[in-house]
Amino acid sequence: MEHACKQLALVITLIFPNAYAFPMGNEAASPGLNDTFADFDGSGRAYPVEWLPNATTFTYNGIKFNLPPFHNPSAYDAIRSDSQVITLQTNGARYHSFHALATSVWPVSGSAAARIGELVYEFDDGTSTSNDILVGPWWSNNPFDGPIHTPFHYANATLDGNKTVDHNITSISYISARIPNDKPLKSITLPANTSYINFFAISLVSGTPSGSVDSPRLSVRNVRSTTKWVDAKDASSEKIQQIEVTLANLSPLSAPTNSSWLTSTHSLYLTSSNDEIKTVIPGKVIRLRSNDQVVIPISIQNNHKVEAGTKVQVTVHLRSEKNSTAVLLETEGQEFEIIAGIPEWNNSDESLRTHEAPDWYEDAKFGIFVHWGVYSVPAWAPSGQQYAEWYNWQLHNPPNNGSPTWVHHLQTYGADIVYDDFIANFSASAWSPDDWTDLFADAGAKYFVFVTKHHDGFALFDTGNSSDRNSLLFGPKRDFLKELFASAKIRHPELHRGTYFSLPEWFNPAYAPYGFGSWPGGGALNAFNGSCCDPYIGYIPVDDYIEELQKPQIQTILHGYDTDILWCDIGGPTAFPQLAASWYNYAASQNRQVVMNNRCGANQSDFVTPEYATFPAALSQKWESSAGMDPFSYGYNSDTPPDAYQNASSIIMELIDIVSKGGNFLLDIGPKADGTVIPEETEPLRQVGQWLKVAGESIYSTRPWFIQPADTSENSTDVRFTTKPDAFYVIAISRPEGGTLRTTAPIPVTQNDRVELLGGSGRNLTWSMINGVFSVEVDEDDLDQVPLPAWAFKITYSTV
Ligand SMILES: *[C@@H]1O[C@H](CO)[C@@H](O)[C@H](O)[C@H]1NC(C)=O
Ligand SMILES: *[C@@H]1O[C@H](CO)[C@@H](O)[C@H](O)[C@H]1NC(C)=O
Ligand SMILES: *[C@@H]1O[C@H](CO)[C@@H](O)[C@H](O)[C@H]1NC(C)=O
Ligand SMILES: *[C@@H]1O[C@H](CO)[C@@H](O)[C@H](O)[C@H]1NC(C)=O
Ligand SMILES: *[C@@H]1O[C@H](CO)[C@@H](O)[C@H](O)[C@H]1NC(C)=O
Ligand SMILES: *[C@@H]1O[C@H](CO)[C@@H](O)[C@H](O)[C@H]1NC(C)=O
Ligand SMILES: *[C@@H]1O[C@H](CO)[C@@H](O)[C@H](O)[C@H]1NC(C)=O
Ligand SMILES: *[C@@H]1O[C@H](CO)[C@@H](O)[C@H](O)[C@H]1NC(C)=O
Ligand SMILES: *[C@@H]1O[C@H](CO)[C@@H](O)[C@H](O)[C@H]1NC(C)=O
Ligand SMILES: *[C@@H]1O[C@H](CO)[C@@H](O)[C@H](O)[C@H]1NC(C)=O
Ligand SMILES: *[C@@H]1O[C@H](CO)[C@@H](O)[C@H](O)[C@H]1NC(C)=O
Ligand SMILES: *[C@@H]1O[C@H](CO)[C@@H](O)[C@H](O)[C@H]1NC(C)=O
């Protein structure tokens, strides 16, 4: 019996790429510079083979992959996705999920970005469905993560400034997607070539074969150790470590609800064969419908004398809370290896890579970004086309009437005024940090990120001996970062406090040896007479920008101001990796879990950062989308007409969409030079806050739904989904027509569940699930009560 069950959870690994003679075979791994066969991206770039695994299999996230022959220099080892059809040789079998090692390449004239692709599943009965997958780029100056990485890749000298090797970290990503498991799967069509996706390995997790289904088929897909801990009052006691168990219900999607779903409260425990660990807070699962999957945190501690960082074999146990009966898992008895306990960080890549976004950040969803500085004085760019905070760059590039900023500057200030003349007018005369932090809180944000120093190099914090170019010594003579953090700490301690920091400075003389692209370093030639050079007020000559300026400044932000979020910009030459471990250990000693983005020039990151863009599907790593309320500027732009700012309805819809796909939204305001925030920004933010006040539980602390993030199909209300252990949320971003919300998504609702509209009258709503259509009846009056056109319906799981 048990053996039969285990087979159901088998992972089918496809032999790649030999098993099917696909067109578009590709050679990704190169044995050296003079190899002409490898041409991963169509421009001759390639991975260095010696850094790729030389093994036939690779296991990640509980999935075993068959690796391609990376180390055979004359065999293809990747497939350029081009609508190839994978015909499954397992007739009649059903599958639960698709997993791949994959990456996307940059199109020749494009830039590094995650790419979207559509997987199409064709079933034996002739029907088909599809899934969007999002795949990170194989390398980028601001890297994405992956389970396989190389420290460099071979470059194309013609395209890469004569470099034959590029030392940005280069990786292979992991992706996964759910497959409907109620029908035998015949084939899978890979994404079209316009996706620029390459596959290295594909594995499928089996669903249940045909036959009667009289109980949920619960399968532990993975047990993952994390370096996250559960907040405890006492920082000095041993940390309670979070372990994440991925639990799937492999019963067919269409199997009867009353027998094949998990519908009552169950606890998950871990045990280890030699008693190395104890479960402190069991995991909890209340509802798991067929074909669904959920990640459940379990909190553990090491037993006496087991050192943090010890590898331990654990098994997972599931128990019904009602009668304490153990529930048999498909994977009963299977052992998983974890790293028990959280060791101190050190500066090795291996150690730093274990850092990840903490739960508070994952839960927060909504943050406010603030771009304010000397650029807020001229506050100008052609609206919708350029960022106003880039004023000084645009003034000099090009230094003629080809630049709208140059023309504007000449007309407004004349040729004698240089950028640093604006410092005196950066007055902050009407600034109230309390007004700002109240605004963040009123908006319903859970964190904020303050620009401490932009590319113009003018810092709004105490830069100590590294530079005098700051607001304590020039302009307003105040420590803005200190005042803002102090206000937040006192008035809104629940807000996490974050800091943006630009690693390079456009025109810092000492940056010249490191300069690249739009950050050349070196003084700026005067934009009107070409003389050398514009003043760089407060500059203290240093021998080495990274060691003597950037490093102490980052150190000050981390240890002097106790930031929770280091939001670096631009990447490139960096001191951060030298500071990371001591920052993580320092914060941990204060019981703080901190987070950094992928622009710190490091080989690791806790989240990736699409800019004025959101991701159209879930990504296998944490992401945060940022954008200004201005149509295309983070800093205040006086050229933007009042009606062009993003309104509250648009913000809330964007937030809901982002959250359903696993992202956070960092929405930016650009205060004026006097420190006031224009009503075009404060009013929508407060309206968003009103919505979040009544419906925020559908956003905060939720997780994306494994089955699908949205239903945008014909005849359905335009909806997004979010989940919590005890509830499911269907959020309509179009008004339910005629007072009926409809969706064909397989909502995990059962008979006794309560459905209500958050922000409505609070009454129980009449709902039905008929022929796969979930409908909810709601009064127009109730819909009208919700402050913005987004209606969050909460399904509270009944446990009876
Ligand atoms: C590649 O070929 C060039 C020219 O033939 C040679 O100078 C160079 O040393 C070779 N490089 C490597 C890494 O073999
Ligand atoms: C490098 O890029 C140039 C320009 O696109 C191209 O002509 C050349 O073929 C590429 N080199 C290789 C080895 O593919
Ligand atoms: C890769 O593994 C094969 C088989 O174990 C071995 O023959 C070969 O030498 C290895 N290659 C490298 C580069 O380690
Ligand atoms: C690359 O090398 C060529 C020839 O030496 C030179 O003309 C060109 O300026 C170089 N390009 C860059 C971007 O350094
Ligand atoms: C990383 O890539 C960027 C281009 O995006 C390039 O300018 C830079 O030199 C690369 N860094 C390293 C260390 O190779
Ligand atoms: C994609 O395929 C189409 C035809 O199937 C072809 O015309 C096009 O050039 C291909 N694009 C790329 C980027 O390979
Ligand atoms: C499940 O529901 C069906 C139809 O409503 C019913 O016939 C069946 O007896 C129920 N099974 C169980 C185990 O309650
Ligand atoms: C215990 O509760 C579970 C879940 O409600 C149920 O499936 C099981 O039959 C119960 N077992 C016993 C022995 O009552
Ligand atoms: C750094 O940390 C890693 C991972 O925790 C560990 O394996 C390694 O031994 C540590 N290195 C040093 C020098 O402590
Ligand atoms: C600074 O402010 C004064 C007073 O408003 C104004 O006359 C002057 O043009 C401003 N100068 C700059 C460089 O902003
Ligand atoms: C949507 O509804 C219309 C009218 O009832 C029907 O003709 C159409 O087939 C429906 N579309 C889908 C995808 O169900
Ligand atoms: C709403 O529904 C729940 C669960 O179905 C039930 O317990 C509760 O009594 C109902 N409340 C009202 C006001 O009908």
Describe the structure concisely for a colleague.
The protein is α+β, with helices and mostly antiparallel strands. The protein is 16% helix and 28% strand. Strands 1, 2, 7, 9, 12, 15 and 17 form a 7-stranded antiparallel beta sheet that branches. Strands 31-30-29-28-27-33-32 form a 7-stranded parallel beta sheet.
The 3D shape can be described as globular
Q: How many domain regions?
A: 4
With helices defined by DSSP (H or I, 4 residues minimum), what is the helix count? 13
CATH architecture assignment name of the largest domain: Alpha-Beta Barrel
How many β-strand stretches?
Answer: 41
Terminal Cα span? 29 Å
Return the CATH topology of the largest domain: TIM Barrel
Runs with pLDDT <50, length 5+?
1-10, 15-21
Enzyme class: hydrolase
InterPro entries: FUC_metazoa-typ, GH, Glyco_hydro_29, Glyco_hydro_29_N, Glyco_hydro_b
Family: Belongs to the glycosyl hydrolase 29 family.
Domain Glycoside hydrolase family 29 N-terminal: 345-697
Description:
There is one protein chain. By secondary structure, the protein is of the alpha+beta class. It has four domains: 12-206, no CATH class; 218-342, Immunoglobulin-like, CATH 2.60.40; 364-696, Glycosidases (TIM Barrel, Alpha-Beta Barrel); 705-796, Golgi alpha-mannosidase II (Immunoglobulin-like, Sandwich). It is 16% helix and 28% strand. It has 13 helices and 41 strands. The strands form ten sheets. Strands 1, 2, 7, 9, 12, 15 and 17 form a seven-stranded antiparallel β-sheet that branches. A hairpin with a 2-residue loop joins strand 35 and strand 36. The longest helix has 17 residues, at 679-695. The radius of gyration is 27 Å and the shape is globular. The two termini are 29 Å apart. The model is unreliable at 1-10 and 15-21 (pLDDT under 50). Bound molecules: 2-acetamido-2-deoxy-beta-D-glucopyranose (12 copies). One 2-acetamido-2-deoxy-beta-D-glucopyranose (NAG) binds next to loops. Keywords: Glycosidase, Hydrolase, Signal. Belongs to the glycosyl hydrolase 29 family. Alpha-L-fucosidase is responsible for hydrolyzing the alpha-1,6-linked fucose joined to the reducing-end N-acetylglucosamine of the carbohydrate moieties of glycoproteins.
